[in-house]
Every structure is written in structure tokens, then in C-alpha cells.
Amino acid sequence: MTALLIWEAAYRFVGWRSYVFPAPSHVLDAVLSMLNIRTAFGEPVKPGWPWPTKGNVVGAVASGPLIEALVVSCSRLLIGFAISVLVGVLLGVVIWTIKSVDQLLGPLFLGLQTLPSVCWVPLGILWFGINERGILFVLVMGSVFAIAISLRDGMRTIPPIYRRAGLMLGASGWKQYAYVLLPASLPALATSLRQGFSFAWRSLMGAELILAAQRHGLGFLLEIGRSFADVAQVVAVMMMMVIIGMLADRFIFAPAERRVHQRFGLVVAE
Amino acid sequence: MARPTSGILRNETSAVSARGRLTLSNVSKNFDGTGVPAIQDITLECQPGEFVVVVGPSGCGKSTLLNIAAGMLKPEKGTAAIDGRLIQGPGPDRAMVFQDHGLFPWLSAAQNVEFGLKMAGFSRADRQQRVAEALRMVHLSRSAGKLVHELSGGMRQRVAIARSLVVDPAVLLMDEPFAALDAQTRTLLHQQLQELWVETKKTILFVTHSVGEAVRLADRIIVMHAHPGKIRAEIDIPLSHPRDIDSRDINDLVHRIRREIEDEVNRVNANLAPEDQWKPKAAGDLVDCSANLGSGI
Prior knowledge:
The complex is a heterodimer of chains A (270) and B (297). With 270 residues, chain A is mainly alpha-helical. Chain A has 2 domains: 43 residues, no CATH class; 194 residues, MetI-like fold, CATH 1.10.3720.10. In chain A, helix 4 packs across helix 7, helix 4 crosses helix 10 and helix 11 runs antiparallel to helix 12. With 297 residues, chain B is of the alpha/beta class. Chain B has one domain: P-loop containing nucleotide triphosphate hydrolases (Rossmann fold, 3-Layer(aba) Sandwich). Chain B has a 6-stranded mixed sheet with strand order 6-7-8-3-9-10, sandwiched between helices. Chain B has a 4-stranded antiparallel sheet with strand order 2-1-4-5, covered by helices on one side. In chain B, a hairpin with a 2-residue loop joins strand 4 and strand 5. In chain B, helix 3 packs across helix 4 and helix 7 packs across helix 8. Chain B is globular and about 60 Å long. Chains A and B meet through helix 8 and helix 9 of A and strand 6 and helix 3 of B.
């Protein structure tokens, strides 16, 4: 809050130009205008402030580009991340289980994990075209290897005694996976999903920025801001991206990871 | 145990009292394929209901021996059999208690005990009854719902013992189960284990590096030496169970057996080439741990 005030004050006193660097009030303007609410906090108040121009408020807000973009981006994220988790967990378990496959694919996965996810965009376009599937392709490729690698690394830290204890108590074959290795890998899984999510979110934003598919996500809103030289909108959308990433981590992935670690006694419960 | 028991575990074991003859014949195992074998030509028979303790220094192959009996390792030469059946792999007739308990941290104490029953496909009602009985036997009924990291070291080991007993094995294999515990807890668990053994009459093959622990618990002590791992002596302990753990008898016996072990070592060494000779060092496991029985070792 203090930082925002200093930022606003700096804008007012130093005299940056709003088309180069916006003040927080401009960013707020941009957010609200994407919600179909006209405010003009940064400028002299005009008639019609602060209500939507026409229709009822809820309907207008809901039909604004920001809500549409959020819905589109989050639905893509859910679908893409689900695919990514399924494939990534499977790959991770396979390379952890079968040494020769790990030797073959492990370095490849590690290499692909270091590849910036937007680099998958050209391939996505060529293989799938400028559409939903192209975007999902980029998202999945951008996060699946991170999930697989970090799950494998986590599973490597499972004490071998769990497997022996399981064998002794009759957990062999699929039972070993279902009742011993899978639960034993929960801390690794929680960590890898948390990491995979941030990769997925970044990949999705990159893909949406470049791939202007029929439905417009947050990334596309960023690109619109650029093409209209609307710095306030650009900054506003970037902040939305940060906020969504942080909220998901703070309220879903970090607590899940903490609870698993507490159950396993890996951290002291607060 | 003072309390009269009519538990499930008790009933089953007494119904098949002749169960649990563990036979190792001429077993050898060589891990690296070259050099000195980890264990060489071990022949050992545990009678049903016998408490056998294998004593030896670190690296004498006593854990290897146990793992072969458990079916976790395959011997290169020789055979391991239980009640006449060849041991091919881990099985429900043998349960093992590990030094670092090996409890599953994602399960509660009761769920850990229940695990083996679940794998064996017991019904839910049956499982609950047996788990309750097993936890009662190790005096942990009130800690049933606790997670592993909420239990003390001694409690964890007791849960591990309950988890092994609940599947009603013919033989209980114990791999230095009390080595990581403090002396007082260890003494307590020695007493409890004796009570459990008197009650259930399981065959127990117990591995330790402590002569004191061996004398407290064993019907028969097997002394092993390293490089290569071989049985060098067998000593019967003619005291009745349950034993008063701090009695003079046991103390005397520990000292006598330590001397016997040294004599045996010297006798064997006399017949060996210098590089094959083994001698307990002053600060070695064997001497160190048997020296002070009063502190519970």
C-alpha cells in the first residue's frame, strides 16, 4: 500500500508521462474499464463516472473483457494443467522406475525443462494451428517435464526401507505402487505439482500472448494493450497475472505441500 | 504379561504350536562377487518357539543372514527353509522388525499395524479387532491414532513389533531393533519383548552387537565373526523366562560369555593365517556394549 502511494506521488510530482509509465490510478482505471466500469481516476472526472455506460452493473462487469479473459485463461489452465499432471506424473514414475528409460530420457527431459516455454509456440502453431489445442500444447510442453523431473528427484529420496517393509508385509507388484510408493511419494508429488503449476501458468501466458486464438485470454489482453499503446492496461494485466499465480500458490499449492510435510513429520507443525 | 490373554494372536499360535522351524544350511553370500564373502557356510536351525540371538561386530554379516531368512536376499550357496519349505522371497510366515522401524509416516500407528492385514485381504471388522489386540499387547492402545512422527523412538519400535506380530508370522526376525534407543527405553523394551515372546511363543531370530542384550533375551546365542562372516560359537542360556533383567545371574553370564567369546576367538585365530584373524578391539562394539549391563545395554 505504501509502495503504491509512493508510486502515485512520484508520478504526480516527477511528472512521468502516462503513456510511458502509468500511475496506480491509471492502472486501476484500466482494470475497471476492462470490467466495463468507467472511472477516470487518473484524469479530471467526466460525466458518467463511475458507473458503466449502459445496462445493469453485474451484467456489464461480467461481459467486460477482463472477466472473459479470466474465465478463458483459467479454464485453459485447468484443462492443460490436468493433462500436464497426468502425463508428467506418469513420465516421472516411469523414469524413476526404469533405469534404462531414465538414462535415455532423463537428460532430454532436463534439457527440455530448461527450454523457455514460448519456444514451443512455433511448433504448436505448425502442428495444431492458431487454436485452443495449440495453446494447450504450449502449456503442457512448458510444464510436463518440470513435473516429471521434480517427481523423479523427489521419489529418489524415498527411503528404501519403506519398500522393504512393504514387501515384508505383503505389498508387492501393483500393491507396492498403490500402498507404499505412491503415498511415500506424496511430499515429492506436492512439491512437483507446485513447481509444475507455476511453469504451466507462465507457459499459458506466453502462449496466449502470441497465439491469438478465437477466445481471448489474459495474455491476449496484454497484447491488445500493447497494440493500442495502452501502458496502463499492460501493467494492469501483468499485475492480474502475478496475482492469480500468487493466489493459487498461496491458497492451494503451498498449503497442500505444507500439510503433506507436516503429516510426514518433515516440518514441525506451527 | 500379567493379564490373562485370550487374544486372537495367542489362540492362533497355540493352535499350530509346531510352526516356525527356521533352517539355514550351508548358506553363503558374497556381495561384490570377489574377495571375502559377507557370510560363509552358515548352518543354523531355530526350533519352533526358540529365541535365538546372533551376536557379532558390525560387518560380520548378521544382517545379511537375517535378510536371507526374510527372503529379501538370495543366498549364493546353501538353502534357507521354514517348516521344510524353501524360502523364495518375503512371505507372511516371516515378519521383520528393522533397526530404523520402517513405519509408514503417512499412516497412523493403528493404520501401520493394520497394513499387513489389509495386504492379506482381511475384512474390516477382523482387521480392527486384530489391530486393537496387537496394540494392547505392546501397551499402545491409547496412541493408536498418533502419527509416526508424534511417537517416541521406543513407541515407534513397539508399533513396528505390533505390525509384525499382527500378521501372525511363524518367525519374527529382528534386526538390531533396539540399537538406536536410549538405555532406559531399551531395558523397558527388553522386558516387554520377553513378555510378548512368552505369550505368543513365536520363533525369534534376533540380531545384535550387544552381548548384554543377547544374554537378557536369548535361549541360545550364536556368535559370529567377520571377514568372512562365520559362526564361531553357540552358547545356550539356561535361564528361565521372563528374566529379571538386572539380576546377578545375567551379569555373571555376560562376563562368562565375553570370556568364552575371547577364548573362542583366540582358539580360532590360532588356526588361521594372520590376515584372517579377528580380535575384538578394546573399543569395539562387542566389548563396549557388554561391559556395562547396569546401564541397560
